[in-house]
Amino acid sequence: MAEKNPTTRGDTTPQPRGNVRDEIAAFVSKARVLARPQAQDDGRLLFAMDATMSRQPTWDMAMSLQGEMFAALPKDTALQVQLLYFRGLGECRASRWVLDAQALTRLMSGITCQGGNTQIGKVFSHARDEHKRRRIHAVVFVGDAIEENVDALATKAGELGLLGLPLFLFQEGHDPRVEAAFKEFARLSKGAYARFDSAAPRQLADLLKAVAAYASGGRQHLKLQSSAAARALLTQIEGR
């Protein structure tokens, strides 16, 4: 069998050309793909909640408000969210990453709160491990209690700070021990702290919107939020 001769540099044989319209259509199609936000460039937010028994009213409220996180994003910006919760006797679970409010609502609607102790250490450890696999831009934790060693939790929060993963800790209630601990975790991770009132759902809604904006585009996107909650979080972050 005769071998085919490779094309030489000096070969000037004209090559067949496709239809010009087809070439233009292919170019436009490729340009659209390149312009579309890619999954690896999406903002990533870990949304962690205490799902022990006392948390059911706040869980239901957060489920009804979480869609505003996505609505707050600037145009052409995408946000991936992973739900993480703990409850019962040592149960701590993480969902898949989702890209829309409906998917996150479906995940949350299948979960009921159960009695048990806090497992904030597991939240921090999961955030660290997930961040090492692929960058997370922010962690939100919503809770009202701490039943673990605060110094051990502070060490983990500091590790997240060194990794460039800020914690946004939102406290329900007025427990001074929880407030002091949450503020320290925020400081060590270069994140922020805020208290909200479960009787005033707009407070939590504004906080979630602010962190979603930060996770999707950093401080510049957070500055686009006009709420008092957003300004307070920005002030803390810029002061780190």
Provide a descriptive summary of the structure in words:
The chain is of the alpha/beta class. It is built from nine helices and six strands. A six-stranded mixed sheet has the order 3-2-1-4-5-6, with helices on both faces. The radius of gyration is 23 Å and the shape is globular. The protein starts with 19 loop residues before the first helix and ends with a helix. The model is unreliable at 1-11 and 27-38 (pLDDT under 50).
What structural keywords apply?
240 residues; alpha/beta; Rossmann fold; six-stranded mixed β-sheet; 9 helices; 48% helix
In short:
The protein contains 9 helices and 6 strands.
Largest sheet: 6 strands, mixed
Q: Classify the helix fraction into a percent range.
A: 40-55%
Tell me the span between the first and last alpha carbons.
74 Å
Estimate the mean pLDDT confidence: 88
Q: Give the strand order, joined by hyphens, for the main sheet.
A: 3-2-1-4-5-6
- Overall form: globular
